[in-house]
Amino acid sequence: MRKRRHSTVTKEKATRYTKKLINLLTWFYYVRRAYKIFLFISDNKDQTQLYIEEAQKYGIKILPPDVNKSYVEYSPDGNDIRFGMAAIKQVGVAVCEAIIKEREENGEFKNIFDFCKRLDPKYVNKKSLEGLIKSGAFSNIEKSRKQLMENLEYILSSTARASKEKAMGQVSLFASLPENNEFEAIQYQLGGSDEEYPDKYIQQFEKEFLGFYVTSHPLFSIRKNLPFLMTHKISELKNMKEESPVTICGLVLSYFCLAISFPPIK
User: Fold this and answer.
1) Could you report the per-residue pLDDT of 66-90, keeping only the tens digit for each?
2) Cα Rg for the chain, rounded, in angstroms?
3) Strand partners, 77
4) How far is CA 112 from CA 94, 115, 139, 163, in A?
5) Percent of the chain with pLDDT over 90
């Protein structure tokens, strides 16, 4: 009986065939499998951004991380694709696994205080919480990233104190009552306004902590006009001949001045 030969799919093969898959597969077929393609190319941020845009053309949303819905890596979420929490800067795999384990064993998190109190304190620190907040991982259970960042120190100190008291067996009279939801609502309240950051700041946070623009893009307002303004995409330049005339559109993220000395004209 002849044995079947199994071929290994490399990252290079996956990226080469992705566009063909997108054009050939139907809507649901693509959604159910496309997230696996993102897993193959997740180390290459330039390619990932291109495929995020390609998926959006087909009406498939690339959703930001969510403490109640995300897994470690990319995963399907209904008809869309959800970012994995391991993609967030300052959030390690161990933190992601602890979040998922607690969520699956005891249900979804109600708010950021509930999140911090239920996780082991070693997984809840200023850096990991900042990464989760700024990447939008709490946006479905809290109103404002700005309000969360302004209350970050209070959130950490109050939940750390509650965890310490729980470990020592110290529970307040009100907290020990069977129906203590109202007491907790009063005890753990965010201060200040729930006004959100302007879009440009959210875009900067997502770029910094995820490596990509997810919920919106700085060029979104002129997106429909881009095909008429440029001749090529930046990703296409590497395959072009030298000195070919091109017009491209993009964002200037940083720049530096270089002093050049020219020989004197005789």
Assistant:
1) 999 999 988 888 878 888 899 899 9
2) 24
3) 80
4) 19, 5, 10, 14
5) 35
